[in-house]
Amino acid sequence: MSTATEKVLRRRLIQRPAEPGVRQTLYDVIFEADSTLGRGFDIALLVAIIASIVLVSLETVPEYGLQRDPKSETPVSTLATWFWVLEWFLTILFTIEYALRLYCVRHPLKYAFSFWGIVDLLSILPSYLALFVEYSAKSFVILRSVRLLRVFRVLKLWRMMSQADELADAVWKSREKIIVFLAVVLVAVTISGTLMYQIETVLMGSSHESDFTSIPQSMYWAIVTMTTVGYGDVVPHTTIGKIISAALILLGYSLIIVPTGFVSAELSSKLVTTTERHLCSQCGLSNHRAGAVHCDRCGHRLDDVIPAVSSPDGSQGS
Amino acid sequence: MSTATEKVLRRRLIQRPAEPGVRQTLYDVIFEADSTLGRGFDIALLVAIIASIVLVSLETVPEYGLQRDPKSETPVSTLATWFWVLEWFLTILFTIEYALRLYCVRHPLKYAFSFWGIVDLLSILPSYLALFVEYSAKSFVILRSVRLLRVFRVLKLWRMMSQADELADAVWKSREKIIVFLAVVLVAVTISGTLMYQIETVLMGSSHESDFTSIPQSMYWAIVTMTTVGYGDVVPHTTIGKIISAALILLGYSLIIVPTGFVSAELSSKLVTTTERHLCSQCGLSNHRAGAVHCDRCGHRLDDVIPAVSSPDGSQGS
Amino acid sequence: MSTATEKVLRRRLIQRPAEPGVRQTLYDVIFEADSTLGRGFDIALLVAIIASIVLVSLETVPEYGLQRDPKSETPVSTLATWFWVLEWFLTILFTIEYALRLYCVRHPLKYAFSFWGIVDLLSILPSYLALFVEYSAKSFVILRSVRLLRVFRVLKLWRMMSQADELADAVWKSREKIIVFLAVVLVAVTISGTLMYQIETVLMGSSHESDFTSIPQSMYWAIVTMTTVGYGDVVPHTTIGKIISAALILLGYSLIIVPTGFVSAELSSKLVTTTERHLCSQCGLSNHRAGAVHCDRCGHRLDDVIPAVSSPDGSQGS
Amino acid sequence: MSTATEKVLRRRLIQRPAEPGVRQTLYDVIFEADSTLGRGFDIALLVAIIASIVLVSLETVPEYGLQRDPKSETPVSTLATWFWVLEWFLTILFTIEYALRLYCVRHPLKYAFSFWGIVDLLSILPSYLALFVEYSAKSFVILRSVRLLRVFRVLKLWRMMSQADELADAVWKSREKIIVFLAVVLVAVTISGTLMYQIETVLMGSSHESDFTSIPQSMYWAIVTMTTVGYGDVVPHTTIGKIISAALILLGYSLIIVPTGFVSAELSSKLVTTTERHLCSQCGLSNHRAGAVHCDRCGHRLDDVIPAVSSPDGSQGS
């Protein structure tokens, strides 16, 4: 919360043009979401980004036949023309936006080499580069896919929401537990993968065909199974394999619910602590409800309602 | 909650006929669930709705041969006749119910254009319209399916349960977090979908057939995988694809447990606060902490600590 | 907890033979788990039940060829003989146990018609009845399967665990929420099933084969999908079907995490309340930690530690 | 926790060489993670273990052709040579490490027969034994797989993390509930497996082929379904089977969320209590409720309310 506000303030101090004028106004519209215009710009951008992602991904559907070379003699379909027009319209829009961003920040180079700056550049560059690359070549297809990095810009709406930091914070705080958890998963996956490979392939002999062709394949099965994804492309075929598999599923299930519980508990405790913490200056009772005016033990007036963020235990994040 | 009670009271003030009589009695039976008759009516309606849904869906099973034209020469099976009889019996029942509803509310037009009014109309209209539409035509099948909107009426039993609002409330409160979560999912799905498409189709060449035929198809795979549904109709076939897929599964799993934790935490904190509530006899503030001696709003001594079970909103169950 | 203890005491008062002697000693061994012998009996019984379940289920595996008629001329395999011997050994054991149970309770008929009495009878009766039924007949196979109801007796170890009631209680308390949840699931399943049936089968025409052959089949798909089971036997084949399917998966996922959160929250609040509740007789502060000796507000000695169960709010179940 | 710290201290007292010197320095580097060198050693070991696991598992991929006999005439591929070199490099590294460990502990035999000592030995022994075993024999492949037990050594990084004990503790505390849960799952799996076998195979006759060939197969299906893994290799084919299957899925889902809730609740309550702990200066009792004024064991006034962050067990993270 307030750390997020501080971050916003710090960024504004660094990047917002100091003197009032066109650049400052533009900065407020493009980079901030406080004004009506700024919020409108954000929503328009969001729509443009999602439209652009839909376009770029639909381009690869073979049935629409959009990956042909427009320079060739084969008549281009109307659909392809529309896609081409829309794609260039959006590309030019994003180019203008990128130029404006560079224009209105105080330190354009700093922005250009920041994470968002690079994402913005990668969103438009491939469209221009593609003009010089041979059509239907592999590198062409890959190049055009780079435009899909645009999707990262959806995350810019992050700042619209006050709760996002809380979520990121809860995940970040659970990082050590997640590492321990990944170590346990690594061990479980390796051991169960090896076991199933031995049983299904080595022990059972070549009388029946096995899906567990190698240990990496078995590990892939173990991960797919323990996370309850269960594609079904690799399944045990022997009775012993099925029994061990069932046991591993139950074990894996018990194992994988633990991090869920941890994140849930972290969020739970966060919610409890942030909504219930005030200190009475007379009797020292803390942990009052949000909005409490009198101490509920001694009845003393809680004049100095200390907001949760200033509590000294550092539970308010990073 | 009290807001729910208020809503019920407001609706009653608006729609319940003012003068006592047949209409008011009918209104109490059909719209309210307080009396024995009203509760009985609700249960009878529930049974009728569920029976009707079973009927309409079984009609589409090809083995039962119920989609034939009864006007044709082919002898109709006894089963089809039974279905026809039951369906018309229920349709007429729902028609009478709809007519009575219109009759006993104070402002029939207001009801007719409300959500429930439209659902009620759509539940019976297709049966009558179907008489004029050619059998076995596409539009006929679609038309008859509209009757399945009846299922929404099951939600009318919502008011029977005091806990439903709590559930809806918890989901509603988590809405901002859910939007953030969906944005993160959108980014993860786009990036991982594009990556898998590149690896499985473009990089690996045409030596083996790939399930990742296009980016939308890959995104479909990413959603099916990250939510641990895992149909198995689209699976990676290359070793690199499997390794990246396994990594994405673990990442996706970590990602998707977060909203579970949020809703869980929201409900948890709610439950903790609702089970620890005390009423101040002076200012009427409820919801004090367990063990509170003074009201935290007015400082009045809470002599009469009213246990949670006697709170008037009925959140203590059965 | 203490309600469970009360139940045990009540049962003992009713069913335990009043006068000391062989019957009372036998009763304590067979029905109670307090003594070393009683506990040993419980564990032995548990092993016998699990062994018997394994036997009965392995009998149906076609490869072992155990379903043949032993009276026929075909030489019975050694494995089949072993199965036969073990099965009869266990059946006779269970028969003796059943007889002893009937012998040592005060009211044998009351026991015979109780849930456990019927389960005990159904565990042994089919073995004897099977002697008079023709082998390899359908009814024979079904009859022998009835013996698997023995598995219910595993639940007898329930009383070994103090935590079982807590679990059952948490589930029971969430029953209203679970009904609401099932109503919401019913609506979601019907609407999404109908929608997918329309799109995949009716709208798309007969140009491609669809897995959504009827509305019940589509509903089956919706349940399999929303619970993230995802067999993959019914999957969308059209692009529009896949997009709608992906949207439904995300919606369904959001929907299905709610009851998880509810049960989790219920258990959470329970744990918090049961571990922290004691009343100070001087200042009236409740909610002390388990094991607290002095009131943590006024320092008064907590002579009268009132167990959690006697708190008036009825949160201790049933 | 402090028990973990005690364990470390006890181990150090027993196994750390008493007199200063080379052995003590080596012990601190190899067994402890306090010093920079010790931490560096741990990380290097971690990298080596993971590299070795990747190597051993890739060896079994048929496409790489690494399972051939290098003594045969067939020219070994460059890749195979590289694998061979790396594998022996790592084996020798692990051998040196094992020798050093035996050298620097006070009681080498005690270490050699401890869990970690056996894992260390099993990590290197198969490589040496494999020299004397015929290539491409079954026993050879199994022998080499034993090396994958190395993965257990990843768990040595456990001590790097203060949170691991908390996780293990939460799982351990839930053990009774997990046993109850497994008993309930066993009953549900047996009953639903038998039911589906009866319906799909026995009742439906031989007119269609069934995936439910035996009761164990049906139980395998029940476990795969109830844990929401859903491979799709065993699916119901009859309409009645699908209806019962859908009901079982919903029931199983309700059932399986319970342990998730339990672990989550256990962790939640743990987190709440660990963040709200105060130390009594008289008797040393920690872990008082937030807002406690008197120690609840000795009644001494808690003048010095020590905030949670300064608690000595390091549970406050990084």
Automatic annotation (TrEMBL), chains A, B, C, D:
<feature type="transmembrane region" description="Helical">
    <location>
        <begin position="243"/>
        <end position="263"/>
    </location>
</feature>
<feature type="transmembrane region" description="Helical">
    <location>
        <begin position="112"/>
        <end position="133"/>
    </location>
</feature>
<keyword id="KW-0633">Potassium transport</keyword>
<dbReference type="GO" id="GO:0008076">
    <property type="term" value="C:voltage-gated potassium channel complex"/>
</dbReference>
<dbReference type="InterPro" id="IPR005821">
    <property type="entry name" value="Ion_trans_dom"/>
</dbReference>
<dbReference type="InterPro" id="IPR028325">
    <property type="entry name" value="VG_K_chnl"/>
</dbReference>
<feature type="transmembrane region" description="Helical">
    <location>
        <begin position="43"/>
        <end position="61"/>
    </location>
</feature>
<keyword id="KW-0813">Transport</keyword>
<keyword id="KW-0472">Membrane</keyword>
<feature type="transmembrane region" description="Helical">
    <location>
        <begin position="178"/>
        <end position="199"/>
    </location>
</feature>
<dbReference type="GO" id="GO:0001508">
    <property type="term" value="P:action potential"/>
</dbReference>
<keyword id="KW-0407">Ion channel</keyword>
<feature type="transmembrane region" description="Helical">
    <location>
        <begin position="81"/>
        <end position="100"/>
    </location>
</feature>
<keyword id="KW-0851">Voltage-gated channel</keyword>
<dbReference type="GO" id="GO:0005249">
    <property type="term" value="F:voltage-gated potassium channel activity"/>
</dbReference>
<feature type="domain" description="Ion transport">
    <location>
        <begin position="41"/>
        <end position="264"/>
    </location>
</feature>
<dbReference type="Pfam" id="PF00520">
    <property type="entry name" value="Ion_trans"/>
</dbReference>
<keyword id="KW-0630">Potassium</keyword>
<keyword id="KW-0812">Transmembrane</keyword>
<keyword id="KW-1133">Transmembrane helix</keyword>
<protein>
    <submittedName>
        <fullName>Potassium channel protein</fullName>
    </submittedName>
</protein>
<keyword id="KW-0631">Potassium channel</keyword>
<keyword id="KW-0406">Ion transport</keyword>
<dbReference type="InterPro" id="IPR027359">
    <property type="entry name" value="Volt_channel_dom_sf"/>
</dbReference>
